[in-house]
Amino acid sequence: MVNDEQLAKMHSAPGFVAALDQSGGSTPTALSAYGVPPSAYASEAEMFDLVHQMRVRIMTSPAFTGERILGAILFEMTMDRTVGGKGAAEFLWQDRRIVPFLKVDKGLADTVDGAQTMRPIPDLAALLARAVGHGVFGTKMRSVIHDADPAGVASVVDQQFTVARQILAAGLVPIIEPEVDIRSASKAAAEALLHDALVAALEGLDAGQQVLLKLTLPEQPGLYADLVDHPRVVRVLALSGGYSRHDADERLAANPGVVASFSRALTEGLSAQQSDEAFTATLDESISQIYAASTT
After folding, report:
1. Which residues form the catalytic set?
2. pLDDT single digits (tens) 79-89
């Protein structure tokens, strides 16, 4: 059963969504940017312990509160661990009034027709039940579009909405994330194809069903304005996609109604070697800039 207070916050409150969901493939890069090189850990378990320490430091920072942050996306192992003496999702909502989301995809399949759909998600029903038990509001799942190929775009959107229906049936609200690669030579054309495919897919949802969309900041400002106002869309989020925080914020400000859901751009400048005072000041500056761009 969807939490009405959380739904209202995600739909209407000012702010942005923090993406803290780096998985096995992206964790080494995130840790290196944080000042923790691969030589600092000897196993995958040690790596995940270190990235959890980074996430705990972010989530417990005085700068990280629901006043400017709408929600936070968690990796499965983060949901299963504790923050501040309670489950991570429970801590986010009960202590910080930040709506918790869970990344549910298991990575990307090989490229076909210029796009990467999601790998199969085994035991999704059990994972969704666990998420509900932790008070999670919604989920996130990522695909990637590399080229303006109609077949590839269609396969990504069809799969995303097929899985979204299962998530909705479990009582959770899905974030649909069909990322368009910012390095694509046909980025603008791919985004136009994606826009039309999303509009058609949204019309196929049942009455009363709603999703969030997480999209690459488009080449054409305002491209997704109709999706921002769509009755079956709770909110349109933007991923930073490899843009620097400055560039991502600049592009975001050119798309009114779209709010950030940044990962790399959020943690830019944070370091394991910083004092708590310096860490909080850097995170606060990052949050302030992303909040401002999300409320323009």
Report:
1. 177, 214
2. 999 999 999 99
